């Protein structure tokens, strides 16, 4: 589920740029407080998909140290009938500045197939540092956490790019800075379990893990309207493959004009 969340998000190689050169100071034009999006996670072996889990993302507006911020909570879990195969109970939280979408605090509590981890990160934008359970870490400009990356990337103007272009940014996770990217793959219509959408397609560069392979094997489709929220994610995994479909949304900032038909 961690890599699914990272994949809804991600990503870029440096291309002789720093993330700060191109993307520092992106403002929010894509979402508003009160938004909630839900997903179903389907698992497949031999081409047969079963509904194995759910994920939700909810967004509120709060203040942290007197700074107005968005507070997003992402939760992922396997359905009880599939817990015996690989039980997942994950909760991610991010607080990020409303003005520049830079993270202020990140909290992670995961239980994935018996692997458990809790992480608490405080970001300091003025000193470009992160304080974690394990110490203080120096950061580049405009670094993102796992969840803030999703909402930051939703504000990218994909019309500026050509098919095949790589769009860079950096992410801090597990006490490391990852220089990742999204490869823009153009636009197409995609049919999901929820409906048919005109979509922007891209491939995020993934960090190799225990479930997902590294590289550009994941594909993400986001709405081709100002909301830019993901409607489908597909990826091979160690055994089989997964498909994640958006199954509900509310309090989005704009009408979902990209939806061609419902189911």
From TrEMBL:
InterPro entries for this protein: DUF3108
Protein name as it appears in the record: DUF3108 domain-containing protein
């Amino acid at each position: 589920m961690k890599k699914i969340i990272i994949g809804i998000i991600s990503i870029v190689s440096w291309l002789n740029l720093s993330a700060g050169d191109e993307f520092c100071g992106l403002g929010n034009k894509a979402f508003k407080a009160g938004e909630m999006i839900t997903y179903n996670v389907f698992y497949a072996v031999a081409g047969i998909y079963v509904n194995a889990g759910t994920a939700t993302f909810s967004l509120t507006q709060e203040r942290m140290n007197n700074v107005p911020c968005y507070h997003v909570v992402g939760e992922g879990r396997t359905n009880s009938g599939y817990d015996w195969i690989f039980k997942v109970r994950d909760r991610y939280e991010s607080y990020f500045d409303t003005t520049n979408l830079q993270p202020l605090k990140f909290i992670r509590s995961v239980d994935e197939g018996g692997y458990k981890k809790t992480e608490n990160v405080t970001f300091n934008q003025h000193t470009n540092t992160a304080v974690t359970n394990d110490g203080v870490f120096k950061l580049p400009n405009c670094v993102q956490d796992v969840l803030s990356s999703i909402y930051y990337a939703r504000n990218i103007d994909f019309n500026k790019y050509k098919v095949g272009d790589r769009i860079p940014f950096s992410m801090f996770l597990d006490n490391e800075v990852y220089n990742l990217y999204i490869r823009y793959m153009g636009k197409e219509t995609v049919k999901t379990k929820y409906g048919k959408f005109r979509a922007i397609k891209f491939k995020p560069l993934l960090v190799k893990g225990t479930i997902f392979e590294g590289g550009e094997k994941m594909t993400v489709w986001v709405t081709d309207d100002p909301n830019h929220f993901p409607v489908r994610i597909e990826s091979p995994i160690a055994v089989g493959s997964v498909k994640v479909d958006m199954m509900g949304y509310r309090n989005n900032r704009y009408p979902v004009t990209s939806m061609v038909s419902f189911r």
